[in-house]
UniProtKB/TrEMBL annotation:
Keyword Plastid tagged: no
Annotated ranges, domain ABC transporter: 25-255
Record PROSITE patterns: ABC_TRANSPORTER_1, ABC_TRANSPORTER_2
Taxon lineage: Bacteria, Bacillati, Actinomycetota, Actinomycetes, Micrococcales
Key word Nuclease present: no
Organism, scientific name: Leucobacter chromiireducens subsp. solipictus
An example molecular function term from Gene Ontology annotations: ATP binding
Protein name: ABC transporter ATP-binding protein
InterPro entries: AAA+_ATPase (IPR003593), ABC_SmlMolc_Importer (IPR050093), ABC_transporter-like_ATP-bd (IPR003439), ABC_transporter-like_CS (IPR017871), Mo/tungstate-bd_C_term_dom (IPR008995), P-loop_NTPase (IPR027417), Transp-assoc_OB_typ2 (IPR013611)
Keywords: ATP-binding, Nucleotide-binding, Transport
Highest taxon of source: Bacteria
Length: 383
């Protein structure tokens, strides 16, 4: 399903540029097929000027194809793409006012850093002195002042990606496309650069469309996230809404870590969970690991089989006695000593499920216990 939810400032940075320099984007019923293979089906999406949108989904869902169509590197089989209300389909890539940063840095190895940044300006016949001024300014913006005379092979991966970002911004685009630009970097550099990209976007007001398969990046950086599957948008929402109020089983299972816990059909959410006798006729609750607690009990339903240290929390896996279910529970690390591997434990639900799939198809999907919507609304508002 597609959603027309408007952008939210809920838990997002508020330091936007006073007058966004970005352009508005609209995909109208965009389709793309390669022979009999459909890659995009009726993609409709409106992006506000100055908004940061992430396209998130598994490999082959169509997110990169959508980005390439917007950039002018692919032609859609149907539909239209508009920038500030005007179709850009007749325009070549260099006339769309769009900058793009790829996963591969695509820097010219025989050119200095400054010349790499000037490249797009040279194609546009910007005078030499102006090109130099803009390039040096952009390098300062991405914290590479003083690196202008180096060559790409003298830079780290993170520095090369900053050069690619400076080159994309040098042409003053209204839109910046990011195609998994951080995936080739190590974890520490990636975390730092994503904060820098977000800060730069907020400062300039440019519109950003960011393609990634990394959920953490999408949820941390974007104003809204569009989750895609099989060429369609399943849900587009703020990170808070997406995480706590998914609109379908795919989104509930894809975004973040969830447990699917069978419960008796049409029953209220239990305080303590136990597998129902007839799992085939049961409803399924989608429950986050941090919404569960496991504790030693004479009413145990399973055994602790492993601990995964995550820092402040530890992820505990509990296997039910019948071997049919492996439940993930996140506990504060200092509490883990109470549930060592091999301990027989009960599983208690401390928060409402985020989604419910009913065994009875006549029951609306997502009908979780009544207090769930209010619970997550208050939790998101206090974040």
């Amino acid at each position: 399903m597609t959603s027309t939810a408007t952008p939210s400032t809920l838990s997002r940075p508020a330091a936007r540029a006073a007058a966004p320099a970005g352009a508005a984007i609209e995909f109208r019923g965009v389709q793309k097929s390669y022979g009999a293979t459909s890659v995009l089906e009726d993609l409709s999406l409106h992006i506000e000027a100055g908004e940061f949108i992430a396209l998130l989904g598994p490999s082959g869902c169509g997110k990169t194809t959508a980005l390439r169509i917007l950039g002018g590197f692919e032609t859609p089989s149907g539909g239209d793409v508009l920038v500030d209300g005007e179709s850009v389909l007749p325009l070549p890539p260099h006339r769309r006012g769009i900058g793009m940063v790829f996963q591969s840095y695509s820097l010219f190895p025989n050119l200095t850093v400054r010349k790499n940044v000037e490249f797009g300006l040279a194609l546009r016949r910007v005078p030499r002195a102006e090109r130099k001024r803009i390039a040096l300014e952009m390098l300062e913006t991405v914290r590479l002042g003083g690196f202008e005379n180096r060559y790409p092979n003298q830079l780290s991966g993170g520095q090369q990606q900053r050069v690619a970002l400076a080159r994309a911004l040098a042409i003053s685009p209204g839109i910046l496309l990011l195609d998994e630009p951080l995936s080739a970097l190590d974890a520490q550099v990636r975390a730092g650069l994503r904060e820098e990209i977000r800060e730069l976007q907020l400062r300039t007001g440019i519109t950003v469309v960011f393609v990634t398969h990394d959920q953490e990046e999408a949820l941390a950086m974007a104003d809204r996230v569009a989750v895609m599957r099989d060429g369609r948008i399943q849900q587009i929402a703020t990170p808070d809404e997406l995480f706590f109020r998914p609109e379908g089983a795919f989104v509930a299972g894809f975004v973040g870590v969830t447990n699917e816990l069978p419960v008796a059909a049409r029953s209220p959410q239990p305080e303590f969970w136990a597998p129902p006798a007839d799992a085939a006729a049961a409803d399924r609750l989608f429950v986050r690991p941090d919404a569960l607690v496991c504790e030693p009990s004479t009413d145990a339903v399973g055994t602790v089989t492993s601990h995964l240290f995550l820092g402040a929390t530890t992820r505990i896996t509990v296997e039910t006695f019948d071997g049919a279910h492996r439940v993930k529970v996140d506990l504060p690390t200092h509490q883990v000593v109470t549930v060592p591997v091999g301990e027989r434990v009960a599983i208690r639900l401390t928060q409402p499920a985020i989604y419910r799939v009913a065994a009875d198809v006549s029951v609306p999907a997502g009908a979780v216990v009544p207090e769930a919507a209010e619970f997550f609304r208050q939790r998101a508002a206090s974040a």
